[in-house]
Amino acid sequence: MTGATAICKFFNEFFDYKINKNNILTGKTPE
Fold this sequence. Notes:
Layout lengths: L1 H25 L5
């Protein structure tokens, strides 16, 4: 379960990074 948790955490952080990067590029602010 530890490995699965690490993978989930990695994907969550990765997608959060992409969303934040897109918000910065488009001038949008996260809700």
